[in-house]
Amino acid sequence: MKRETVLIILSMLVLAFFLAKMFDSGNMSSGNRRSQELIYSDFKSLVASGEIANAQIVGDSLIEGFTQEGLGFRTYIPVEDPSVIDYLRLYQIPINYVPEKSMPWYLNILINWGPFLLIFGIWLVLMRRMQGGSGGGGLFSIGRSRAKKIEPSEMKITFNDVAGVEEAKDDLGETVEFLKDPAKFRKLGGRIPKGMLMSGSPGTGKTLLAKAVAGEAGVPFFSMSGSDFVEMFVGVGASRVRDMFEQGRQNAPCIIFIDEIDAVGGSRGTGMGGGNDEREQTLNQLLVEMDGFDGMEGIIVVAATNRPDVLDPALLRPGRFDRHVSIPLPDVKGREEILNIHAKKVQMVEEVDMSIIARGTPGFSGADLKNLINEAALGGARNNKTELNLADFEWARDKVMMGTERKSMVMSEKEKRNTAYHEAGHALVSALLPKSDPIHKVTIVPRGRALGLTSYLPENDNHSYDFEYLSNRITIAMGGRAAEEIIFDEVTTGASNDIQQATDTIRNMICRWGMSKSFGPIVFGSDNQMNVLGRDIGKDREYSEKTATEIDVEMRKTIKFHNEKAKKLLRDNVQVLHKIVDVLMKEETIDGSYIMKLLKKDQSKVAPVGS
Ligand code: ADP
Ligand code: ZN
Fold this sequence. Notes:
Blueprint: H1 2-24, E1 36-38, H2 40-48, E2 52-58, E3 62-67, E4 72-76, H3 83-90, E5 95-98, H4 105-131, E6 148-150, H5 166-180, H6 182-188, E7 195-199, H7 206-217, E8 221-225, H8 226-229, H9 236-250, E9 254-259, H10 262-265, H11 277-292, E10 299-305, E11 323-326, H12 332-343, H13 354-359, H14 366-382, H15 390-402, H16 413-432, E12 439-443, E13 453-456, H17 467-488, H18 496-511, H19 545-572, H20 574-587, E14 589-591, H21 592-598
Helix pairs in contact: 1-4, 5-6, 5-7, 9-11, 12-14, 14-15, 16-17, 16-20, 17-18, 17-19, 18-19
């Protein structure tokens, strides 16, 4: 924005000057702005009556001076009245003569051209605004690509900075070798994909990985976002694409990284923004460019998206983005590695075991984990700590996971007790059931929208679950409400989330996973009809009204069964329930291991109880 500021200041100066001159014109030479202009004949009579103190003749048409009262005046001499000088002499008025002050040439230019300069300046600023700002190049760069270039000497990222994506790294190893020495590959006749599509949720490290490839190979890295291509003027995007590839060719071997490719590469003609000429032209240009180089020049185009499903199939054809690297969310081991990478940058006590944090952060992306470390450091600094310990990271985890702690939110004693029983109910049911995840801790410190939280430490991220595990999950979800019910004989709204979760699980068990005894292995409704929002709005029901009713009945029966089961478990162990609540009321947080101790069991839950 620097250029813009300069332009604005310049325009203002020009304007100020111009206005000042306009105001001033006519008495340029007068030191006295407030001088009064006299009619020539009045001036003469004032001279005659002795009221003029002095006069100064400027050039050959202006007289200025002061009256006896000290007021400034000026008047213009009619053409050809040289007698005026004699006239003044006659009345013994002191006369001074100065040649006409002419304006310096540059002021002349400024005054004459000022308005044009001003308009030009404003126009420039507006043009830059429309372009959306940053980047150099000024007026003539609209159609130039605004790709950011990172030189190999500035690129500090290598594969060592990326963790938890081993498969992707293996995939990319070959690409690195190729970029290091394209000529060698050419001789060997190996075929290297020129386009690579990375797909994965936001923050999983797609950009990071592409940078690491450039860093490993020591080649320049150009990056641009798909949304940068889409401009309001038709043709701009296409010309930017052309320019970006031109830059790439000049700098080969190199990596061209296009983030959010879905912004340009979404299916043509359908979906959101359909019929957008500009976008289509841009996409076409991209396809043309992809086809236009043979891949042996040493340019690798890496595109990233979190929605590979909406991409135009033309983009994925052979010779274009035909290599697909999928970047999943990191698993428990990956999370630990990522945490360790980022934790290196903060000061912590020796024995912090990141595997504990890793186990408590399923679903976190690399960026989330980085954020967790950062939050821990911020929190530690606020408490004047010099080293971070496990508790700091756990606090940060809860903060990142649930939003900011709402310490200031005052819960009434009754609300607190309610929440304590609710969370203790979840925890106790979970502790009593076999095949459920070990409890990490239970807290009734409100965070985000939740009043309390029971967190678990899954031993690993499962991708498939068995019937028993899923059933237990439903029982545990009902446990919170069940506890409130048996203790207070009333239920609160705090359980709505649990009920939702339980309902979803049951529906999936019946309709998708074929886990219901009465229906058997059959899928009701199909999966791939989820639309963009993940909801099955337009889902064609592939089963009859009668079946729908049966499913409803089955679901209600199942929910009821689990509710009763949870209540029975809690009633049978109500002493432990009270004890957990006592601790929660005092300390607000209780460790999973302590609950196990209360249950007089070891932490591995060898002796399952339950029906
Ligand atoms: P994406 O491009 O997939 O949205 P980024 O590459 O921009 O994600 O990730 C943002 C930041 O999160 C990175 O700069 C890095 O610090 C951190 N990060 C993400 N994934 C990883 C990972 N696998 N290993 C280490 N750090 C990661
Ligand atoms: Zn709950």
